[in-house]
Amino acid sequence: MIKNYFKIAWRNLWKNKVSSVINIVGLAVGMAACIVILLFVAYEKSFDNFHGDNVVRISEVQKFPGMAASQKVGLSMFPMGPSLKAEFPEVEKFTRVKWDKKYQMTFGEKRVFLPQVFAVDSAFLKIFNFKVLKGNAQNAIEKPNSIAITQETAEKLFGNEDPIGKTINHFGGDTVRFMVTAVMANCPKNSQLQFDAIYSLPGIHQKWMDNWGGNWLNTYLKLAPGTNLKGFEAKMPGFLKKHLNGDGWKYYELFYLSLKDIHANSADIGLDYLNYQKFDKKSTNLFAIIAFIVLLIACVNFMNLSTARSADRAKEVGIRKSIGANRPQLAIQFLAETILLSLLALVLAIVLVEIALPYVNSLSQRDISLNIIGNPGFMLILVAGALLVGGISGIYPALFLSSFQPVKVLKGSVETGKNKGTMRNVLVVAQFTSAVFLMIATVFVVKQLRFMQDKDPGFTRDQIVNIPLDRISGRNYELFKQALLGNTLVADVTASQDQLGSHLDQNGVSFKYNNDALRELAATQLIVDDNYLRTYNIKMVEGKNFSSEKSANGREYIVNESMAKELLKDHPKAALSSLIGQRFGYDSLGVITGIAKDFNFNSLHYKVENLYIVNQDQWGFSTVSVKIKAGKSKEALEYIKATWKKINPDYPFEYQFLDDHFAEVYQADTQISKIVGILAVLAIMISCLGLFGLASFSAEKRIKEIGVRKVLGASVQNIVMLLTGHFIKLVLMANLIAWPLAWYTINHWLQGFAFRINVTWGSFVFVALASVFIAVATISFQSIKAAISNPVKSLRNE
C-alpha cells in the first residue's frame, strides 16, 4: 500500500514538472537556510560545553563618581580568588588568568612569538577540561615556573622531540626560565579561552596580594554543587566592604556568569578580553527566527500551488471515491506526495548547504561543518524535520483535495474557487509581508552600518598604521620614531597605551577648582605621546596642546568637552576656558592645559565618555601610530618594516591600518547586516517562485478568456494588466501590513546605538516600489506569453 502511494506520488510529480520543480526548489532553499542557521546556532551553543558544571567568572559593575553611567567589566582584582576561597565554603577552587600577547619563548637557537600565553593558578586544569596529551593535569602547573604548552607550540619549539622536562626561556622585562611539565591539545575553536601555553602565576605575581582596587585579570571559581548563585552574590557587598578601604566598596558590585553563558551573554560587558568570537545571543536568536520565517514562506508556497491546482486533481478524486476509496486513504495519498517532495527538497538542500558553508564560515569566521556521515543522529533529525515540513505543508491541501464530492466532480461542477482563492490570497499576502519586512530591515541595518563607518569620529582615521609594542620593543620607541620622521613617506609618528576603537581603561583622578574642596572622580584615560592630538588631527576648543617641555606645574592634562562639563557641573555658568590651569590629575596633581572637542574614541554603540588625555611617556606605550602619505601606502609600509628590522631585529613586524581595526570593531554588525540581507533575498526569491507558479496557473486557466478578449479587441497591454493587477494589489497590501511591524522593530533595534540614523519613510516607499517591481518582473513573463498567444489556438475547441 505504502509503495503504491509513493509510486502514484512520483507519477504525479513527474506529470506536473514545473509545479514540482518550483515546490522542490522553494522548499530546498527554505530548508537550506534553516539548516545553515541551525548549524550556526548549534555551534554558538556549543561554546565551553566540554567543561564541567558550576564554573563561574567574577565580573564587576563599576559606578565611580564622575562617570556618566555604571559599566560592567569582565575583569577582577588579584586578591579576590584566594580571599573568596578562604572565606566562603561555596568556593571549592579558583584560578586567576593573566594574559600576555606575542609572548617570546626560546629553546636553544629557536625563538618563537606565541600569540597568547596565560599565567594561571594551579587549579586551572582542575577547573577547565582542556585535554592533556602528556604529563599530569593534576599537578602540571603547581610548582613555580612550570609551564604547560599546546601541541602546536611544542611542534614550533621542539619539533619531534619530547618536551617534558626541558627548559625554555622568556626574555621580556626580566628573563624567566620555565620547565615544561605537560603538553596539551590545541584549544578547541569553540572555547572562549584561547592560549598557546599556561604557566604558574603565584610565584611571579604574589606581590599583588594586597592590590585591592586594581582590575587587570580574570578570575574563575568552581562552586560547590547546589550553590545558590543569587544567594552567593547577595554576600558580595559585605565581602567588598571588608576588603576595600573607606567607601571604595560602594563603587563596585560583583556578579557571576556561568562559564557556559559568558560567550553569548556578555554583549553589555566591557574589557572582556578573553571571550573568543564573542557574539550576542540576541543576534543568534534573530537569525533562527528569520530562518524559520523563510522556511514558513516555502511551506506556504506548497499549500498555495497545491490548492491552486485542485481542479486538475478533481476528476482523479471523483474516480477514486466512486470505486471505493475513502477520504483518509486519499488524504494519505496526497500527504505521501508532499513527503516525497519534501525528501527530494532535503537532498537538494543538503547540496546547497555544502555549497554555502565555505562562504558562511568566511563571513562568520567560524568552522562550521555538515558532518552527516559522522553524525547519524543529526541526519535523523534532518529526515524527521523534512517529514514534519512535508506533513505541515501538505496537511491542508490533502484535507482539501480529499474533500471533493464524486458526484459533483464527475459532473464537472466542482467548486474550487472563491473561498479557496481567498485562502490563497491570504497566504500570498503573508508571504510577501514577511519578505517585505526583511527587505525593510535589511535596508535600515545596512544604512546604520554605513552611518557608523562613514560618520566623522572627530579624528583622522585614514592613512594611520598601528604597530604593537611590548616592553622590549617599547624601549626603542624614540629611536624608531626619529628614524621614521626622517623619511618623506611618513607624515607623523606618535604613540599611546591604547588604540582608538578599543575599550579604554578608567582611572581615578582628583580635581580642584579654584578654592573649592578637592574632588575625587573617575574617567576614561588615554596616555599618549606629546604629538598625539596633532597626528590624529583632534581639534581643540580651548587652551593648547601638550608642550614638548614638561610644565613646571607637573603633568599636563587635556580633557574632552564631556569631561569639562562634568568638572564644571557645580559651576554651570562658568566658561570652559576657566578650567585652563586648574589642578587636575593623579599622584601629585598636574594642570589642565586644554580642552579637546568630543571625539568618538569608542564604537558608536556608546556615547562619548568623559575622557582625559595625559602625556606620560615614563610608563611606556603599547601602540605606535604612523601617519603615512596618501597614495604611497606600499612604499611607506616597506620603509617602516625595514626601519623596524634595523631597530628591533629580533622582533617580528606586525601592523594594522586603523580603518581595518575599526572594521573589526563593527564586525558583528557587518555579519548581522549580511546574514539578514541574505535571508531577505532568500525570502523574496521563494515568494517570487510561488508567485511565478500562481501566475502560470492563472494564465493557463484563463487562456480561453484571454482569447475571447483579444478577439473583441483587447490589446496586449490590457491583457497584461488584467493578469498582473490582482497580484500587484496583494503585494501592496503586504507592504501596508509589513510597514508598521518593521517600523516598530527597527526603532527598537536602533535604541542599542548611541549614534543612530533616523527612520525615514522614504526607505519604506523604496522597498514598496522594489517589491512591486520584483513581483511584476516575476509574473510578466507568463502574462506577456499569454497576452501575445494566438486566440485561434485557445478557442479552437469551443
From TrEMBL:
<protein>
    <submittedName>
        <fullName>ABC transporter permease</fullName>
    </submittedName>
</protein>
<feature type="transmembrane region" description="Helical">
    <location>
        <begin position="675"/>
        <end position="698"/>
    </location>
</feature>
<feature type="transmembrane region" description="Helical">
    <location>
        <begin position="377"/>
        <end position="404"/>
    </location>
</feature>
<keyword id="KW-0472">Membrane</keyword>
<feature type="transmembrane region" description="Helical">
    <location>
        <begin position="21"/>
        <end position="43"/>
    </location>
</feature>
<keyword id="KW-1133">Transmembrane helix</keyword>
<dbReference type="Pfam" id="PF02687">
    <property type="entry name" value="FtsX"/>
</dbReference>
<feature type="transmembrane region" description="Helical">
    <location>
        <begin position="330"/>
        <end position="357"/>
    </location>
</feature>
<keyword id="KW-0812">Transmembrane</keyword>
<feature type="transmembrane region" description="Helical">
    <location>
        <begin position="719"/>
        <end position="741"/>
    </location>
</feature>
<dbReference type="GO" id="GO:0005886">
    <property type="term" value="C:plasma membrane"/>
</dbReference>
<dbReference type="InterPro" id="IPR003838">
    <property type="entry name" value="ABC3_permease_C"/>
</dbReference>
<dbReference type="Pfam" id="PF12704">
    <property type="entry name" value="MacB_PCD"/>
</dbReference>
<dbReference type="GO" id="GO:0022857">
    <property type="term" value="F:transmembrane transporter activity"/>
</dbReference>
<keyword id="KW-1003">Cell membrane</keyword>
<dbReference type="InterPro" id="IPR050250">
    <property type="entry name" value="Macrolide_Exporter_MacB"/>
</dbReference>
<feature type="domain" description="ABC3 transporter permease C-terminal">
    <location>
        <begin position="289"/>
        <end position="406"/>
    </location>
</feature>
<feature type="transmembrane region" description="Helical">
    <location>
        <begin position="286"/>
        <end position="305"/>
    </location>
</feature>
<feature type="domain" description="ABC3 transporter permease C-terminal">
    <location>
        <begin position="678"/>
        <end position="791"/>
    </location>
</feature>
<feature type="transmembrane region" description="Helical">
    <location>
        <begin position="425"/>
        <end position="446"/>
    </location>
</feature>
<feature type="domain" description="MacB-like periplasmic core">
    <location>
        <begin position="20"/>
        <end position="236"/>
    </location>
</feature>
<dbReference type="InterPro" id="IPR025857">
    <property type="entry name" value="MacB_PCD"/>
</dbReference>
<feature type="transmembrane region" description="Helical">
    <location>
        <begin position="761"/>
        <end position="781"/>
    </location>
</feature>
<feature type="domain" description="MacB-like periplasmic core">
    <location>
        <begin position="436"/>
        <end position="638"/>
    </location>
</feature>
